[in-house]
């Protein structure tokens, strides 16, 4: 029983962490003031000036956003990826205590990740300054896939 509680605790912690961050308005999470001085950096402007793409119908480039918001964009998406990586990793690890079939463990873990990613984005629609994006659900899901793969590789190693 103690092992099951130890296995489930990180999953619950990550779910609560995601919920807490999604409850905060963007203004409380804005990290661009830390990078404000970077907007004057000619080196960073030149280094990243060739990067330009569309994400959720918005141009992502240094010229469109400035260096600070450009860097913040990648930090935010990396955070999405990382937190859902760990959610999937710890979810499949917890399911291993209840299921012997790896296929079911993978499918249920991925289902939980996708559902929570979608719920997280829906939850953000009620938070000021936050925008629910389908693209973020995709980033979260990709992070989850990598978390599941990492768990399976890690499990086979030990």
From TrEMBL:
Domain VanZ-like: start-end pairs: 11-152
Q: Pfam families given for it? A: VanZ
- Provide the alphabetized UniProt keywords: Membrane, Transferase, Transmembrane, Transmembrane helix
Which spans are transmembrane here?
A: 78-98, 104-122, 134-152
> Is Transmembrane among this UniProt entry's keywords?
yes
Which terms in the Gene Ontology molecular function aspect does this entry carry?
A: transferase activity
Q: Which domain of life is it from?
A: Bacteria
Question: Any idea what this protein is called?
Answer: Phosphate butyryltransferase
Please report the organism this UniProt entry assigns to the protein.
Niallia nealsonii
């Amino acid at each position: 029983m103690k092992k099951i509680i130890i296995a489930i605790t990180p999953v619950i912690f990550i779910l609560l962490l995601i919920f807490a961050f999604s409850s905060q308005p963007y203004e409380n999470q804005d990290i661009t003031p830390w990078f404000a001085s970077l907007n004057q950096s000619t080196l960073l402007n030149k280094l990243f000036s060739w990067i330009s793409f569309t994400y959720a119908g918005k141009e992502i480039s240094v010229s469109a956003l400035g260096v600070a918001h450009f860097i913040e964009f990648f930090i935010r998406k990396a955070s999405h990826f990382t937190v859902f990586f760990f959610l999937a990793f710890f979810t499949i690890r917890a399911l291993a205590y209840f299921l012997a079939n790896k296929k079911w463990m993978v499918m249920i873990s991925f289902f939980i990740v996708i559902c929570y990613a979608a719920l997280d984005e829906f939850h953000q629609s009620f938070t000021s300054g936050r925008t629910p994006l389908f693209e973020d659900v995709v980033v979260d899901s990709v992070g989850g896939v990598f978390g599941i793969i990492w768990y399976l590789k890690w499990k086979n190693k030990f």
